[in-house]
Amino acid sequence: MNKYLKKAFIILAILFICMITKFVYFNLNNNIDSNNIISLQKNITEKCTEYTTISLNDITSFEWEKVYFFAPYSSKKDIFKTIGFRCGGITETTNEGMMQIIFVNKNKMVCNIFGYQDTFAINSSQKVLLSSEKPRFIVTKIGKENDKIRLDWYDSNLVQKSMSNKNIVSQNKVGVWKSESKIRDKNNIIEKSNEFIVSKEGIVVGFMIYNEFEKSTGNFINQYYNSYVGYLNDNDIKCKTEKDNQNFELKFDRNKFDGNISLSGNTSKLNGHYIFTK
User: Fold this and answer.
1) Rounded to whole angstroms, how far apart are CA atoms 185 and 143?
2) DSSP string of 258-277?
3) Contact at 8 Å (CB) between 164 and 176?
4) Among 124, 94, 111, which residue's Cα sits nearest to residue 32?
5) Who contacts 159 (Cβ-Cβ below 8 Å, separation ≥6)?
6) Rounded CA gap, 143 and 60, in Å?
7) What order of strands is seen across the sheet that includes strand 66-69?
8) Alpha carbon distances (Å) from 180 to 200, 222, 251, 270
9) Which residue ranges does the chain devote to CATH 2.40.160?
10) Distance CA 36, CA 41 (A)
């Protein structure tokens, strides 16, 4: 064998070894049991009751240490950096509303929820949750046919200690409450949206958004957002914002909730008087 053929053979051998190593590496780190996503979907359907709260641990039959939530358009590079290792089976989300949720156990991905799901959605304002903390979610149903289950994480530490263990909530207060307004001034259009859920246990989980648009063109200018948790005590809701731990209260009267929200700092644009209806 002449020296050129020998050199080419050595190069091809090295490339082949690299490919095999990469294949083995990715598969060792992509040891996902397809039954995990199936069992998760089944448990959500069977165990989640609308307007109740549930621990994520109660609907995952597989072992996991951390679960990561990635925003749409997150790159593989950012995903690998966040979870701390590289693995196969990751596809980047390309549209708003697509989910990218990764369960990790012992530095291996054990479940990956990707894209749009027909039967459920899981949302969290936190990028990572720990199994040891037994994270809790509030359950609602969405969709035209009310056939899609949505789970929204809430910080149970902010509300659980303040609640009465015998809190009884009347049916007319349980459900989704919304307040929306649109203001047009000389130059801009301001849209405010505030929505919260009252569970059968009296847990309250909500969010408020302020969007500003240029009046003449409709171009987006700015957005302010804050989420909050709270609890219902008789006719009063006591809330705390999750970003900056600011307090406010809402009162129930004549089949509606209302109250003044006064926040300081970057989210003060969300301030105002809100009236909520179902």
Assistant:
1) 34
2) EEEE---GGGGGG-EEEEEB
3) no
4) 111
5) 203, 204, 229, 230, 231, 240
6) 24
7) 108-115, 99-105, 66-69, 128-130
8) 24, 17, 17, 12
9) 157-276
10) 9
Measured distance CA(109)–CA(102) in Å, rounded: 7
Q: Name the pTM for this structure.
A: 0.79
Q: Any idea of the CA torsion for 266, 251, 148, 97, to the nearest 10 degrees? A: -10
157-276 has which fold?
A: Porin (2.40.160)
- Count of CB atoms situated within 10 Å of the CB of 195: 15
Q: Which residues contact 82 (CB under 8 A, 6 or more apart)?
A: 68, 70, 127, 128
β-strand partners of 214: 188
pLDDT tens per residue, the chain (278 residues)?
555 555 555 555 454 444 433 333 333 344 566 789 899 999 999 999 999 999 999 999 999 999 999 988 999 999 999 999 998 888 898 888 889 999 999 999 999 998 887 789 999 989 999 999 999 999 999 877 778 999 999 988 877 655 555 567 899 999 999 999 999 988 999 999 999 999 999 999 999 999 999 999 999 999 999 999 999 988 999 999 988 899 999 999 999 999 999 999 988 999 999 999 99
**CA 102, CA 269: separation in Å to the nearest integer?**
34
- 10 Å CB burial of residue 149 (0-12, 13-18, 19+) is buried
Q: Which amino acid, 154?
A: Y
